[in-house]
Amino acid sequence: QVVKVVYEELTTLMGGAAARLRTAGQPPTVIMLVGLQGSGKTTTAGKLARLIRGQGQRPLMVAADLQRPAAQDQLATLGRTLGVEVYRTAAAGSPVAVCQEAVSHARARMLDPVILDTAGRLHVDEALMEELRAIKAQMKPAEILMVADAMTGQDAVNSATAFHLALELTGYILTKLDGDTRGGAALSIRAVTGAPIKFVGTGEKLDALEVFYPERMASRILGMGDVLSLVEKAEQAVDEKQAAALQKKLRAQAFTLEDFRDQLRQVRGMGPLDQLIGMIPGLSRMKGLPDSSEQERELKRVEAIIDSMTPGERRRPEVLNGSRRKRIAGGSGTSVTDVNRLLKQFGEMQKMMRQLMQAGKGGRMPRNLPFSLH
């Protein structure tokens, strides 16, 4: 009951519900990203563009950091990778002029929203704030989002406060929440500034940006896991048609090593195993769990073994004699023992599925299932 009360209070303190992006009355909507160097601002611009494009919009990213050509090059590279247009200029000028030209370009090309990747500094200084205030005054952005590194703890809170005082931020994007951080910075930033956290970065990949849900972060801070995010990741990784086809195969007892490999790829597509384990309530605190990096390597070994088989062998593993197993081991960079272990485990899994299907038809639980709960 105490945990429940603390959980509800934390959820309320962090905003209660997810805060959505604001939109302008007349398109394009301007989203201004600000923050210190090293917080992941430019990469976050790419992640945000990818997220928005996935909702059916056509964003434009703007290289408004004229101090660092490398930042402009990075944004251009991200744009090519994502298939999102990037506006940059080689001519010397002011950041305000670049932003104005970019918005005119977006309006002419019907691109919306416009994401401004502004300049950062190693430390908060007045010259930076003056430049950002000028962009805000001219562009009147619907959103001014600060990108803050969750790993820096109190420093993130201090810089968030400074940026908020200078620019009246509309929200925050917390990056690097994929490590050991439980999200205390999210609680502190919201409590100190009153501005909502709108997104969180959970990894290095461009799809690792999620809407911030206060109730899920409260669960994470209390070590209760985050099952809802895990379910969402699974839904994104699994194709509905593939899932229906797989279910049909399972019922028909026609599950093959090819299907098994596809399932492994979907699990790996959900993200690092240690991240998935951290979302399951209580599991991350259990002792004696296998090292997640070793588990990742094992999944790759299994996939390599299956890839080294012919399509016929994957469909009918019973044809795998000694010489074939030796060939597969050589082709996958593993040992014959590894191949034998995989085939034995797959055989046991098929046996278990047959028993479960038969039991389902008869309305009873099967006995002597080939796995142990201990």
Question: What does this 3D model show about the protein?
Answer:
With 374 residues, the chain is of the alpha/beta class. It has 2 domains: 2-224, Rossmann fold; 234-362, Orthogonal Bundle (434 Repressor (Amino-terminal Domain)), CATH 1.10.260.30. Helices cover 54% and strands 10% of the residues. It contains 16 helices and 8 strands. It has helices spanning 2-13, 41-53, 69-82, 95-109, 126-139, 154-167, 184-193, 214-221, 227-237, 240-251, 257-269, 273-278, 292-307, 311-315, 322-332, 336-362; strands at residues 30-34, 60-63, 85-87, 114-117, 143-149, 171-175, 197-201, 209-211. Strands 3-2-4-1-5-6-7-8 form an 8-stranded mixed sheet, sandwiched between helices. Helix 3 (69-82) links the parallel strand 2 (60-63) and strand 3 (85-87). Helix 1 crosses helix 8 (214-221). It is elongated, with a radius of gyration of 25 Å.
Question: Would you kindly provide a brief summary of this structure?
Answer:
With 374 residues, the protein is of the alpha/beta class.
- The residue fraction in helices comes out at 40-55%
H/E series:
HEHEHEHEHEHEHEEHHHHHHHHH
Strand order of the largest sheet: 3-2-4-1-5-6-7-8
> What summary fits the major beta sheet?
8 strands, mixed
Radius of gyration equals 25 Å
- The percentage of residues in β strands lies in 5-15%
Q: Which CATH class of the largest domain is shown?
A: Alpha Beta
Q: In CATH terms, what is the fold-level topology of the largest domain?
A: Rossmann fold
Given the helix and strand composition, which structural class is it? alpha/beta
C-alpha geometry:
elongated
At the fourth CATH level, what is the homologous superfamily of the largest domain? P-loop containing nucleotide triphosphate hydrolases
Multimer state: single chain
Overall number of structural domains: 2
